[in-house]
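tool_call: predict_structure(chain=1)
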Amino acid sequence: MPLRVLRLIDANLNRASEGLRLLEDVARFILNDAGLCQQLKAMRHSLVEETKPLSVKLLSQRDSEQDVGHPHPISLPSRERGMDMEASSLQDLSGVITANAKRVAESLRVIEELAKLPEMSSVLPPAKFEQLRFTLYTLEQRLTSRILRQDKVKQLAGLYVILDRQALAGRDELEIAEQVIQGGAKVIQLRDKQSSKAELLPIAQKLKDLCDKSGILFIINDYLDLVLAVDADGLHIGQRDLPLPIIRKELPIDRIVGCSVRTVSQAIKAQNEGADYIAVGSIFPTPTKKDATVVGVNRLKQIRQVVTSPLLAIGGINEDNIGEVMAAGADSVAVISAVLSKGDVKGAVQRLMAKMRMSKKEEHSAFS
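tool_result:
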């Protein structure tokens, strides 16, 4: 068995393990994603198991001090300097994920090719390293997608206003949206269960442009094709819409998806399928959806105990009960009538947000 080949395998095995550990830690400590973390951990352990028969020989051939590629302070090769500068310029986590995923993939490919040598094929299975490499491609996409969506998800902590065109009763969507934004809302959703998509398209485009200029999220209810057409920030779906995994395949990886639920099991399923936020409701009876199933504040508490995804409470929420909803575990609140039924839309938004802030301060004081 050629000693130089063993040294090459050892170097690439270490490189792959180090890269996988970084990706695993991102999934664990930054994303709090148990599923992704476990898959990356399993890949790292699989590398150890597959190369276990060679572990002593690999370690025996390691010679880091004489490695010409080692970045010695005095004689750092130009290529290594360039790589160091490139690494130091990575100022966002998506760049770190990409760099380390490529590092792992390249190392796995090297080991895979070396495993095809006649003297190595009986000890290392080339197909296993190929399989690991393709698994990594999928995990890289999922990690990057989650990181890119993080900033959008953080904005959900503010007030979420649903522009229901039926509730608007003919009022201009853009004028109302401007008042909502001036009031301080962080998310606007366009909802219309009756109009054609041809009619909604220009309205959605104008609202998207307005939200972009104002730095707030623009979500569209139900219609995946409209989200894609105007490049909205995300889509909100119900239990009767397309399954979330299918939606994920169609949406760009940096777009968010919210899912409405009524039960604990629906909430767990939505989280497991990758919903960026979970809308629980109807919390109270609501004038905009008289046939809505009222689940109550206790259901919100139950769901809060079993999911870590951001929770959006919806249904009949107003200035009088918004504090109770926040205290029950909601990260954000969606409203329609509490804003759209008011003559002073901007003021209504401001009052609701003040109540939300007060509730958060009281909760913080209770635990401090």
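agent: Residues 72-91 have pLDDT under 50 and may be disordered. Proceeding to next step.
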